[in-house]
Write a sequence for this structure.
């Protein structure tokens, strides 16, 4: 049943429709009641229990249905003005006002819309997708705030850690030694076969870091030479004793030419390769016209119970550094180093200011008793100092 009443209002032609009340009651079982709804009207639902009603949008109409009785109320055209705040539309149930949200929250199916109607309604009706998107945005914002808080905590931890590292580095920096003095320690473990010392070995240990501090002042005028950055290293080779050829007193006041054989071929005196070290020496003087005394093996270094080899050290020093001390320890009993001083307390052989040969190498003769079948470890120590004059000698074009 529909009953519409509009109070008379003069002089209102062409303006917004005057406020009116449209009374709508639920029709009989299976029946349909239709009413046109305009802007400015109040729709009063009589005898309608909204909690039991189903609300749908059909085209531009709102359809209220009672699932139990199959009765329907069609509010024609109301879908297009339902969400327009300027339309002045109101709802009452048995004369008691209700909010539009009470009705719109129950809207279910939307069907039979033209493109124009769909655009009009979808632009004003908060659908499920909009609600879901709003919930997702809210959840994402909460998650972002949580992540920001975690990052802030991590940054605080990192800052504290960096401060601790900086403090530790500052304390370690106080213990630096002088840049011009450095010690290089390397170990060499013998793997010598029986009756011989290993013929060649390069130091297997990693290079020690160079010590650093301020360099000594240059006695010459001008800017001091730059301090080198290379670490001090050296390699070790085992060579054969070289042949000796020279004049000697025969014990009767006569100088005679004496040839004392070495440990291998001429190549074995400088080439550490096995092919050279285990080669046979050839002593050949076919053009000699004077008397010769020839020893196939130099009796000073070779015998039934003694063997000798040359330990050759090749230091790799930065420019301007000179070796001031060399020492080696760890030899078992029966080993001697010719030209070095022995300290029994530390079992160390050492020499101060050793002289490098023309190739920049140190050579020492090692004598040892045979037979030998031992494994032992050696500790080598070398000290070098920066010499400004040596630097200028090695770099004559460098600024003085």
């Amino acid at each position: 049943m529909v009953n519409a009443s509009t109070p008379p209002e003069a002089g209102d032609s062409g303006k917004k429709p005057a406020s009116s009340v449209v009374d709508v009651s639920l029709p009989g079982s299976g029946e349909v009641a239709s009413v046109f709804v305009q802007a400015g009207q109040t729709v009063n639902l009589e005898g309608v229990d909204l909690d039991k009603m189903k609300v749908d949008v059909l085209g531009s109409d709102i359809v209220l249905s009672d699932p139990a009785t199959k009765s329907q109320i069609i509010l024609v055209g109301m879908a297009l003005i339902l969400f327009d705040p300027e339309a002045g539309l109101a709802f009452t149930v048995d004369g008691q006002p209700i909010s539009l949200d009470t009705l719109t929250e129950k809207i279910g199916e939307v069907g039979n819309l033209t493109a124009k109607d769909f655009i009009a309604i979808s632009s004003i009706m908060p659908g499920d997708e909009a609600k879901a998107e709003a919930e997702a945005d809210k959840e994402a914002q909460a998650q972002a705030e949580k992540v920001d808080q975690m990052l802030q905590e991590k940054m605080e931890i990192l800052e504290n850690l960096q401060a601790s590292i900086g403090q530790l580095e500052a304390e370690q920096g106080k213990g630096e030694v002088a840049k011009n003095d450095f010690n290089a320690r390397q170990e060499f473990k013998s793997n010598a076969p029986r009756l011989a010392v290993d013929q060649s070995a390069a130091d297997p240990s990693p290079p020690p870091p160079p010590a650093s501090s301020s360099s000594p002042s240059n006695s010459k005028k001008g800017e001091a030479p730059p301090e080198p950055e290379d670490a001090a290293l050296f390699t070790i080779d085992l060579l054969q004793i070289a042949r000796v050829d020279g004049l000697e007193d025969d014990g009767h006041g006569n100088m005679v030419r004496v040839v004392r054989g070495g440990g291998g071929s001429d190549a074995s005196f400088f080439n550490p390769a096995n092919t050279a070290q285990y080669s046979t020496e050839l002593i050949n003087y076919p053009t000699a016209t004077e008397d010769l005394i020839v020893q196939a093996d130099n009796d000073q270094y070779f015998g039934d119970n003694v063997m000798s080899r040359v330990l050759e050290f090749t230091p790799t020093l930065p420019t301007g550094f000179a070796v001031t001390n060399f020492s080696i320890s760890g030899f078992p009993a029966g080993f001697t180093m010719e030209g070095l001083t022995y300290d029994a307390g530390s079992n160390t052989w050492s020499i101060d200011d050793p002289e490098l040969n023309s190739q920049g190498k140190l050579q020492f003769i090692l004598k040892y008793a045979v037979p030998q079948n031992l494994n032992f470890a050696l500790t080598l120590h070398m000290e070098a100092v920066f010499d400004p004059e040596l630097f200028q000698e090695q770099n004559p074009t460098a600024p003085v």
Summary: The first helix runs from residue 100 to 104. The chain has five helices and 23 strands. The first strand starts at residue 2 and ends at 5.
